[in-house]
Amino acid sequence: MKKVLFCIVCLNMALLCFGQPVKIKLVAEREAFVVFGNERYDLKKGETRWITLEGEDMYGKRLLANEECFLFLEAGDFLEVVLHENRGVELKDDGSLCADRNNWLRKVDLLKQRLQFARVMPQLLPKEYEGLNLERVCDSLNVWLATYLEKYPADRKNFEKVMRTEFKYYRLLEANGIKSSRATFQEFSGEMLARLSEVIPDAEDDRVVYSPSYWRAVEVYVDYLRIEDPRKLQGRGDRIYENEVKLATYFPKGAVRDKIAYTNLDNILYWVRPDRRGDFDKCVKRLAPRYADVLRGKLNKQDADRKARKLVPENLYPVLSGETMNGERVDLSSFKGSWILLDVWATWCGPCCNEIPFLAKMEERLQGRNIEFVSLSVDKAADREKWIKMMREKEMKGVQLRLTGKKSELNETLCISGIPHFAIIDPTGKLVWNGLPGVSYGLIYRILKEVPIR
């Protein structure tokens, strides 16, 4: 009888905790901002702000407030974050498992940061960290986790799985020098691909989605799948939204697949044109409801903000021209009969420069096809030498031009609101795609790889 009563009590407690919201209290002793997940919170000195998370059993999110740390939270957790006047960040120790767990995670993050310092600025590290390397870090992390779980055996239920997964993929990414940038067109050894592909069977357990290193490995592998598509799950290259959802089907049904489909669409949300909204909405309907609602809200707001924007008429060949490095004038119309990838950029634009290596790799893959790669710089005449210097240093291929006309007219012609700006023109002069995601996303490659060989 006592055993039955004990089971009933345990069951009631579990039901009470299940689905309970997570509460995070932000206490600002100074003016500060906090980024938690995808949201930014601006706080005034003396202000208290509450963040409530609902709808899931677990949450694995990054918190940025002068320093970055990974937080792992479960339903019913409460955590107080204090932003001190000295710019320090404190996770208030209230004696709870939640506080201890997340302060332990800060210790883990600190050790990872010290490894980065050991690689680039070893002179800044205390003596006890001399010779710090990945092997030592991983050994320490495993020992720390074993000690932590001895103290808090209740965290073996979910947290242990998340952290074992985290350590596995942290080692993989660090050992192979894979950082936070996109991995599109990156070449991997057979052994590396085999290890990366383990993200697929590991996705059978929904809990792995809360590991940041696992998720980074997923993004890297999805970048590879988008280009190579070994199982041929994607359709025609111009069905970019549909293909982004199909990529998720490489993974088993569950939390990982759902998040991939959402993340893929969210990453290209900015470039969704109103006249293609219907295609995008069809793909959104296939997402898990909680993700679909978020994307619809974002897109509705985006459409409202862009209500006044005109769209460039299709079947109109853009009348554009520029000068070569030698000062010769070249009109875009001179390339009629070929497909044109137009890249509007500038030497002073960081995101534009980040696309240059991806553009070079894509040109190499598409060599021999009936495509002209035209890069049109909007650098001013005063920066002409700077433009020439960058082209030479980065060995930029394709047709390199500098705009000699008015930038305002270019912006109006192509409806440009920011650079880099990518557009595709077909051999008849039709502007078939205007305002595409960067080459680094791989979507432009998927479209252009279907262009026939010259």
Descriptive notes:
The chain is an alpha+beta fold and 454 residues long. The chain folds into 3 domains: 19-126, Sandwich (Immunoglobulin-like); 158-305, no CATH class; 321-448, 3-Layer(aba) Sandwich (Glutaredoxin), CATH 3.40.30.10. 42% of the residues lie in helices and 18% in strands. It is built from 15 helices and 15 strands. It has helices at 2-17, 97-120, 134-151, 159-175, 190-196, 199-202, 212-228, 240-247, 255-267, 277-284, 289-305, 350-365, 384-393, 407-414, 443-448; strands at residues 22-28, 32-36, 39-43, 48-53, 58-64, 68-74, 78-83, 89-91, 321-323, 329-331, 339-345, 371-377, 399-403, 421-425, 431-436. The strands form 3 sheets. It has a 7-stranded mixed β-sheet. Strands 4-1-7-8 form a 4-stranded mixed β-sheet. A 4-stranded antiparallel β-sheet has the order 3-2-5-6. A hairpin with a 2-residue loop joins strand 2 (32-36) and strand 3 (39-43). Helix 2 (97-120) runs antiparallel to helix 3 and helix 4 (159-175) crosses helix 7. The longest helix has 24 residues, at 97-120. Residues 2-18 have low confidence and may be disordered.
Q: Could you outline the blueprint of secondary structure elements for this entry?
A:
Elements: H1 2-17, E1 22-28, E2 32-36, E3 39-43, E4 48-53, E5 58-64, E6 68-74, E7 78-83, E8 89-91, H2 97-120, H3 134-151, H4 159-175, H5 190-196, H6 199-202, H7 212-228, H8 240-247, H9 255-267, H10 277-284, H11 289-305, E9 321-323, E10 329-331, E11 339-345, H12 350-365, E12 371-377, H13 384-393, E13 399-403, H14 407-414, E14 421-425, E15 431-436, H15 443-448
Parallel strand pairs: 1-7, 11-12, 12-13
Antiparallel strand pairs: 1-4, 2-3, 2-5, 5-6, 7-8, 9-10, 9-13, 11-14, 14-15
